[in-house]
């Protein structure tokens, strides 16, 4: 969630989740899917570095990216 407006900015689904606190990393396996707005990311494994808000998708990568609306749109 966005801490300022409380809107959900990222959703994720998977069968297995590994949380690595010291590395600032979530490892998603088992048909992982990450959604941000209309954009969707999937693959065999997704790594999410939450401190830098970066995704790394590995194996059979499928990505659909839609432009995000800005305040001027």
What does this structure look like?
This protein has 73 residues and is mostly beta strands. It is 0% helix and 47% strand. The protein has no helices and eight strands. A four-stranded antiparallel beta sheet has the order 1-4-5-8, with no helix packed on it. The chain has a four-stranded antiparallel beta sheet with strand order 2-3-6-7, with no helix packed on it. A hairpin with a 4-residue loop joins strand 6 (45-49) and strand 7 (54-58). The relative contact order is 0.19.
Mean pLDDT: 88
Run of helices and strands: EEEEEEEE
Beta-strand portion reads over 45%
Order of strands across the widest beta sheet? 1-4-5-8
The number of helical segments is 0
Terminal CA distance reads 22 Å
Number of strands: 8
Task: Summarize the amount of helix as a percent range.
Answer: under 10%
Q: Which stretches are low in confidence, meaning pLDDT under 50 for 5 or more residues running?
A: none
Describe the sheet with the most strands. 4 strands, antiparallel
Q: How large is the radius of gyration?
A: 13 Å
- Assign the structural class, choosing from mainly alpha, mainly beta, alpha/beta, alpha+beta, or little secondary structure: mainly beta
What's the shape?
Answer: globular
List strands and helices in order, with pairings.
Elements lengths: L10 E3 L2 E5 L4 E5 L3 E4 L2 E4 L2 E5 L4 E5 L3 E3 L9
Antiparallel strand pairs: 1-4, 2-3, 3-6, 4-5, 5-8, 6-7
Question: Which tags fit this structure?
Answer:
73 residues, globular, four-stranded antiparallel beta sheet, single chain
């Amino acid at each position: 969630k966005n801490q300022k407006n409380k809107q959900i900015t990222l959703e994720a689904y998977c069968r297995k989740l590994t949380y690595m606190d010291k590395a600032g990393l979530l490892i998603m396996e088992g048909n992982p899917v990450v959604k941000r707005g209309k954009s969707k990311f999937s693959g065999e494994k997704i790594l999410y570095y939450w401190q830098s808000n970066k995704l790394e998708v590995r194996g059979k990568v499928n990505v659909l990216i839609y432009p995000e609306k800005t305040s001027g749109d």
